[in-house]
């Protein structure tokens, strides 16, 4: 039974169903759908389920390019999982796990770090050039590089906090 207005944000409040079981089931469902072509014959149902995956994959490929290999499939599966988890958060008395700061940080920091490290490895000169704004005075260059580095390092933390605050509001 709900004790106050904020008990719907308590993740241990299991009035109707446990979100942990739903999260595992949704993750397994997304994995099964995205890998369905491996264990089923191609038919209309498989084709209909592959349409959203192909749309998401084409959007990710257009944004990130083809240099990151399996990153497009990972982003497509992550998008589908987050979509299902956010839709489950709309069910009354079910706490949305995506409004937790721990979940947003655990998703944003590894993804951000993988993109930063891969860009530094694949194109180090462009990554270093991105730290210095164009047309900056020569005396301010070391300070501007330091400020830009700090802003890049703080970005996933601030975005995670904003996302968690917006989801819980």
Secondary structure layout plus pairing:
Blueprint: H1 19-34, H2 36-39, H3 44-64, H4 71-88, H5 101-122, H6 124-129, H7 141-168
Summarize the structure in words.
It is found in: Membrane; Mitochondrion inner membrane. It is a multi-pass membrane protein. It comes from Haliotis roei (Roe's abalone). By secondary structure, this protein is an all-alpha fold. The protein folds into 2 domains: 96 residues, no CATH class; 70 residues, no CATH class. It contains 7 helices and no strands. The model has no long low-confidence stretch (mean pLDDT 76).
Which key terms come to mind for this protein?
169 residues; mainly alpha; 2 domains
Number of domains: 2
DSSP summary: helix tally: 7
Overall mean pLDDT stands at 76
What's the Cα radius of gyration?
21 Å
From the N-terminal CA to the C-terminal CA, the straight-line distance is: 22 Å
Estimate the strand proportion.
under 5%
């Amino acid at each position: 039974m709900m004790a106050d207005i904020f008990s719907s944000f308590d993740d241990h409040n299991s009035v109707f169903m446990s979100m942990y079981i739903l999260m595992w089931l949704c993750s397994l469902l997304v994995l099964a759908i995205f890998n369905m072509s491996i264990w089923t014959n191609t038919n209309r149902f498989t084709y209909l389920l592959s349409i959203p995956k192909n749309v998401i994959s084409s959007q990710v490929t257009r944004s990130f390019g083809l240099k990151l290999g399996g990153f497009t499939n990972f982003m497509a599966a992550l998008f589908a999982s987050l979509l299902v988890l956010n839709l489950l958060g709309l069910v009354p008395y079910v706490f949305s796990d995506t409004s937790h700061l721990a979940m947003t940080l655990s998703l944003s920091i590894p993804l951000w770090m993988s993109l930063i490290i891969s860009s530094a490895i694949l194109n180090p000169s462009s990554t270093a050039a991105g730290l210095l704004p164009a047309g900056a005075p020569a005396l301010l260059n070391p300070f501007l590089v330091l400020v830009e580095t700090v802003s890049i390092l703080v970005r996933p933390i601030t975005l995670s906090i904003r996302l968690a605050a917006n989801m819980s509001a």
